[in-house]
Amino acid sequence: MSGASGPRPPAGAGQSTKSAARPGSSRERIVPVWLPKAALAICLLGLVVSAYLTIDAFTGGATLACPEGETINCAKVTESEWSKLFGVPVAPLGLVFFAGLAWLCRPVLFRRPGKRWDRLRLTGVGVGLAMVLYLVWAELFKIHAICLWCTVVHVLTFALFLVLLFGQILIEPPPARVRYKDRPR
């Protein structure tokens, strides 16, 4: 029992009229602080490795630092027929992929209302993950060799997929709770 603190303001006082005008918009979009930072960091790492692989693709493998054994052989992978998609080397496609997702993972785009940017990010990383699965299949079953640099790109793409997927789950506002006694009958 504390002292009298004065009259209480009516319920809803202090809320903006904009949120009161549209039902369901009173809950704000909250983005975890780690999400844009983690996604952008993964994109930038992928951009660096993809740039290295792109330079290698256009210099004929002269710059590739990778052991050449039976199982681990970057040159065998990057010079195979599977390292091109419709005649375009996949390394520059990885560069474009990470550059595009780095642009989409800027913090300002995470804070924008609506789901357009979220869907675009998830679609982009989904396409990237499908490409990774195809390339891993080619490495394991067609080329019979693994490229360490390519594996770094594959792991980064998978990590980006997980970060964006689980981050997206945390972005969504929590569902409205309905008490048992208040539910419709």
Give a brief rundown of this model.
By secondary structure, the protein is mainly alpha-helical.
* Poorly predicted sequence stretches spanning 5 or more consecutive residues: 12-27
Total number of domains: 1
Radius of gyration: 24 Å
Average pLDDT works out at 83
Number of helices: 7
CATH topology: de novo design (two linked rop proteins)
Distance separating the two termini: 39 Å
Give the helices and strands as they follow along the chain: HHHEEHHHH
Number of separate strands: 2
Shape, principal axes of CA atoms: elongated
Strand order in the sheet with the most strands? 1-2
CATH arch. level architecture = Up-down Bundle
The level 1 CATH classification is: Mainly Alpha
Share in helix: 55-70%
Our estimate of the beta-strand percent is: under 5%
Q: Could you name the CATH homologous superfamily? A: VKOR domain
Largest sheet, strands/sense/barrel = 2 strands, antiparallel
Instruction: Briefly note the structural class of the backbone.
Output: mainly alpha
